[in-house]
Every structure is written in C-alpha cells, then in structure tokens.
C-alpha cells in the first residue's frame, strides 16, 4: 500500500505541474515574438518553451516529490488514498500512454511512408557529407528522413528542375536541419500532448525553416539560388502532397511560408545588416547554476514542504 500511495502521489504531482505549466506556455508563448533575436536562437527558445512543462515536471517529481515521500512518509501507517490523487494518477497514466502511442504511431507511419519513397532509390553522388539518395519521380522533391542515420532523398523531378548550384544550396539547407536535430525535436513534441500547443509547434517549424535558410546561405548568389530552388520545387508539391500521407519524422524542403522565405532570401544583403546576433548558449549557465545551488541550500526545507503538500493531497 505504501508503494502504491507513493506512485499515485508522484503521478498526481507530475500531472498537476505538467498541466499548469503547459497551460501557461500555451497562453504566453507568443510573447517571444517581441524578442529581438535571430531565427536560430528563436527556434531554440520555442523548442525549449515547448518541452519546458515536460522537463520541469519530471525534474520536480523525481527530485522532490519522490524523495520527500520515501524519506518523510511513515511506512507503518493505515492512511488511505483519497479520490483526488487516484484520479490525477489515472490522468497522468493516460497522458503518458497517449504520448507513447503518439510517438509509436508517428514512427510507424513515417517508416511506412519512407519505405514507399525509398522504392527504387539509388545512391546519388553530390559531395554532401550525409547519405543522399535519388528517389522516384512521385516522391517528395527534397526530404530529410531519419534521426540516428539521416538521409536526404532527392527525386528525379528535382534533379531535372534544379541547376547544380541550386541543388547544392538546397542540400546545405537540409544539412542545417540535421545539425539542429529537427526530426528528433518533432518526435519529442509527439510525446508531450496538450491542447493549444499547435500554434507553438507551427511557429517553431516555420522559424526552423528560416533558420536553416540562414545557416545554408553565405552570400547573395547562394541566397538567389536557394530562392530559385524554393520557387521551382514549390510547383511540384501541390500534386505530390496528395500522393502520400504526411510523414511526421521528416523535414521537407518546401515547407513553411514559401513566399516569405523567398522574399527574405532575395533581400539577403539587407537582412544580414539588420539581423540580430545569436543568443549565446552559455548565457543559460549562470541562472541554471544559481537555481541548482539554491535548490541544494534549501533542499531539506523544500522536501518537508513538499511532504506537507502531499499529505494535504492524500487527504
């Protein structure tokens, strides 16, 4: 009974923290639009904000709730379990099961769709450091698939439409997605379901596309080539989008707001002059270190307070 109560209380706290933080994020994430940051930093911030409820809930549950119950709760007690922690525990198990199913379903659907895209595919020599395959004409024009072993699929239609320079810069765009682990990030989103997060995920996806454009382009000629590749390949997508269902764990080249991306690329020199500097990652170290030190200094009293809250919740 002691172990069951501990599990129920831990799950109840997990779902409470996760739900409250997720609701707050769903309401407040648009404030990041006022932040003066470049696209890569903004994409990183949007991703961190999206996974913040999940990560925080896990850390607080295993860092405070579980230890407080194990250390301070008397084992020889006949205290029962109230309806509220039981129902919250069931809700937590439902969310975890739903997230796991969404991940499994996304991977299975992606594997099935990508397997069709790979039918008849053959190696393509492009000088790209990642595996590049030439896919059949009906496959998407240019797509990044896989996470641990990423591959770039280039359709026959794409090879016919693009010049060598346009193809090379488009491949550099996909390499930027590989370096950012964007396919893995999309899968993490599937594990953290919560209503109202679609807008945040869409904003991250569009920002990640622009960030990949910025990472690929080094001069105005490359910007023009990338814009030309976008315009040419966008003509293929409306027809091919009806051929296969969407694969979750892939990144297509022709995604996001195409017209805005093209306009931004054609104004590359002006955008470079006005582009904000990236936010250094090391800026996160001082607040994280301060939070960790503060948690260590007050760990005992916080455990006692956590246990009092769990006692209230159980009753």
Task: State the gist of this model.
It is built from 13 helices and 5 strands.
Question: Describe it for me?
Answer:
The chain is 67% helix and 6% strand. It has 315 residues and is α+β, with helices and mostly antiparallel strands. The chain starts with a helix and ends with a helix. Residues 239-245 have low confidence and may be disordered.
List its traits.
single chain; 315 residues; alpha+beta; 5-stranded mixed β-sheet; 13 helices; 6% strand
Give the overall average pLDDT: 85
Q: What is the spatial order of strands in the main beta sheet? A: 1-2-4-3-5
The helix/strand series, from N terminus to C terminus, equals HHHEEEEHHHHHHEHHHH
User: Which bin fits the share of residues in helices?
Assistant: 55-70%
Strand % is 5-15%
Q: What is the alpha-carbon Rg in Å? A: 24 Å
What would the principal axes of the Cα set say about the shape?
A: elongated
Total of helices: 13
Structural class from helices and strands? alpha+beta
What's the end-to-end separation, in Å?
A: 15 Å
Number of β-strand runs: 5
Question: How do the helices and strands line up, and which of them pair or pack?
Answer:
Blueprint: H1 2-28, H2 39-72, H3 83-117, E1 122-123, E2 131-135, E3 142-145, E4 151-155, H4 156-161, H5 164-180, H6 182-191, H7 198-216, H8 220-234, H9 237-240, E5 250-252, H10 258-266, H11 268-274, H12 285-297, H13 299-314
Parallel strand pairs: 2-4
Antiparallel strand pairs: 1-2, 3-4, 3-5
Helix pairs in contact: 1-2, 1-3, 2-7, 2-13, 3-6, 5-7, 5-8, 8-10
């Amino acid at each position: 009974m002691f172990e069951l109560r501990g599990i129920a209380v831990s799950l109840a706290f997990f779902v409470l923290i996760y739900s409250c933080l997720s609701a707050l994020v769903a309401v407040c994430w648009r404030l990041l639009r006022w932040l003066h940051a470049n696209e890569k930093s903004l994409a990183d911030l949007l991703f961190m904000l999206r996974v913040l409820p999940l990560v925080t809930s896990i850390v607080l549950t295993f860092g405070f709730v579980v230890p407080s119950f194990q250390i301070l709760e008397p084992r020889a007690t006949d205290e029962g379990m109230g309806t509220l922690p039981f129902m919250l525990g069931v809700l937590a198990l439902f969310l975890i099961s739903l997230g796991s199913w969404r991940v499994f379903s996304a991977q299975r659907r992606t594997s099935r769709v990508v397997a069709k895209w790979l039918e008849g595919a053959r190696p393509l020599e492009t000088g790209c450091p990642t595996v590049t395959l030439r896919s059949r004409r009906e496959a998407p024009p240019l797509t990044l698939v896989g996470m641990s072993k990423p591959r770039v699929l280039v359709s026959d239609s794409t090879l016919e439409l693009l010049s060598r320079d346009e193809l090379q810069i488009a491949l550099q765009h996909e390499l930027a997605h590989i370096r950012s682990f964007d396919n893995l990030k999309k899968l993490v989103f599937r594990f953290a379901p919560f209503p109202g997060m679609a807008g945040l995920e869409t904003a991250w996806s569009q920002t990640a596309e622009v960030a990949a454009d910025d990472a690929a382009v080094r001069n105005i000629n490359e910007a023009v080539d990338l814009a030309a590749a976008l315009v040419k390949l966008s003509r293929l997508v409306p027809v091919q989008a009806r051929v296969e269902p969407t694969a979750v764990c892939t990144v297509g080249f022709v995604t996001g707001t195409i017209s805005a991306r093209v306009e931004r690329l054609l104004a590359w020199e002006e955008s470079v002059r006005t582009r904000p500097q990236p936010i250094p990652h090391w800026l996160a170290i001082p607040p994280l270190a301060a939070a960790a030190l503060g948690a260590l200094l007050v760990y005992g009293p916080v455990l006692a307070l956590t246990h009092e809250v769990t006692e209230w919740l159980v009753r």
